[in-house]
Amino acid sequence: MFEYAPAPESRSIVDIAPSYGLFIDGEFGEAKDTFKTINPATEEVLTEVALAGPEDVDRAVAAARRAFTSWSARPGSERAKYLFRIARIIQERSRELAVLESLDNGKPIKESRDVDLPLVAAHFFYYAGWADKLKYAGFGPEPRPLGVAGQVIPWNFPMLMLAWKIAPALATGNTVVLKPAETTPLSALFFADVCRQAELPPGVVNIVTGAGDTGRYLVEHPDVNKVAFTGSTEVGRQIARSVAGTGKKLTLELGGKAANIVFDDAPIDQAVEGIVNGIFFNQGHVCCAGSRLLVQESIADELLSSLKRRMATLRVGDPLDKNTDIGAINSRAQLDKIVELSEIGGQEGAERWSPPCELPDRGFWFAPTIFTGVTQAHRIAREEIFGPVLSVLTFRTPAEAIEKANNTPYGLSAGIWSEKGSQILAVADKLRAGVVWANTFNKFDPTSPFGGYKESGYGREGGRQGLEAYLA
Amino acid sequence: MPESSTSARLAVRKTYKLYVGGKFPRSESGRTYLVDGDNVALASRKDARDAVLAARAAQPKWAGATAYNRGQVLYRIAEMVEARRAEFASLGVPAAEVDAAIDRWVWYAGWSDKIAQVAGNANPVAGPFFNISAPEPTGVVGVIAPSSLLGLVSVIAPAVVTGNTVVVVASNPQAAITLAEVLATSDVPGGVVNILTGKAAEIAPWLASHDDVNALDLSGVDDPELATELERAAAGTLKRVLRPTSGVDYTDDPGTAAMTALLEIKTVWHPKGF
Fold first, then answer.
1. Domains with residue ranges and CATH for chain A
2. Where are the catalytic residues (chain A) (predicted)?
3. Is B4's pLDDT higher than 80?
4. Which residues from B are below 8 Å from A434, CB to CB?
5. Where are the domains of chain B?
């Protein structure tokens, strides 16, 4: 491995205030309680953030309700212009927001700069264009907004998930109360500032920071018409239960345990890159991560030795270093969960391997890890680890690969590696997953709908289909 | 209980049993209940589970049939109902409603090879990729059917035309089982439509909590408390739920929502290059 000199991105481009309030009705205001958000790479406190209680959520929903009347009555072309403005401001502040995201989340700057932020801007651009074309979207001649959308997003792609939620909601004429994740509230608060810069009317977007309870107040609020949640399947179930009987429209984007299937005719080097991208992108904090590698038995040894060679070149460390491939685990709690499941993997008889790799002394870190000799009964083959941990299983026939790939309650994504077109299409047809990447992995685009089958949730985000979640 | 009272001939009465896996079994519970003078099978939890098993077994092949083929099967159903107009009339279904039910089968038959073109599309992603989104059936659907024949057809047809299989809890047993006899003679593979007669409040919770049911259509649930309870139970495996909408007029244009609610969008990516 080449020794690279550190190439740290400067954090001076971001000015983080000592504290942040809640963004309600176009204003930042205090809340009774606060909590701290830290940089997971150093455990340094970044700032103090308001903890929204039930009254705060009430105020935010009331503001969104008041704003709904005029926002939904505006011509689509005007809503479009606001969204285009937001997209442009994000592009102009892209470097600042990328550094901020890496600080608060721990993801490598290479990813926040080249993946997250460009996709955020693109998402607003895409839905901006829909705002005045909704009657052509195929959801009836007079599609109507639902009202106030309560949106709860996760910590793995904080600003991108915000874009996936807010852009279609606003384009369709809804107003929003959004709760960012407890460990990554900052980019949503900076987005509030983007809204002010864009002179978005007060109340159209409200940001309430907090933990699980804040999210629960929001999704259970009686004056919310639409609930959109991205996060764990367990919380998704609770939300589906709490929404039952209320008539609120619900979309859920939940967990996954994607199979990445490599056939014996696959181009090995490309497949290895795809496997690495599939499980180590964003520290494996990806609901659609290719966390189960299914490799055809005849090429398993060759593929695994290539994969190990490649893993040894992954650079783990400072998220702000432009050379870094794998950044910090987002939180102590998440690290504990990854450690626990990995220990169980070993106890259950799978063979664990990580490349030699020095981890920083402070912060939350986990070396890229693969388990071989994994069976379908192992917990590491069944449960979402949400970390840089790959379980390797083998198969002999395409039918066996399909059977194993589908043998999970999840159904978010899957990968296929093969040079044979007819095989790719036949397997893609049979995989029960909402996104299938063939000879590629972890590709995202605002025009391309994303979402799961089975217990990975329902509804789609992105694309024309993504509008449906916000229309009556 | 239609009987020919004008003739001296003693009528041969029909026994109304369940329709599961293409066969007409009695309820395993041995129970019946009296509806308009007929002893009708009263389905149990075990019957519901058997029906789910039959629906699951039939689903891959039905979904794998060509859309053209499924369309022809649905059209054949229309032909067979047409031939039984008198029987449905004798069960008290108004002639106009039988007509509408027939026409609904024809309408949905035509959708089989078009819904994917309307609900799916190519996506112009910003990169050298082929990217296409197409709908697929969600799988096994539990249906609590409305009581009218037209309502019953209006919930079964959109589910099966796209490749789902269904377990239906019907509240109009004689018409529903007569429809089952139509299905059994219309080239509908056994298990694609399964019809249980009995009490929705008794059977539906087992469908709502069943791990191998993908979606739940509550169109026929009149009791809001039961609907809420079922929706809550369905959350256990994150089933797709079609909530009851009050005041539906089944003679209206059904639109595509009943079909798309039971479809999953799958998006496939592949690089382009030399």
1. 19-254+453-470 (3.40.605.10), 259-438 (3.40.309.10)
2. 253
3. no
4. 264-267
5. 32-271
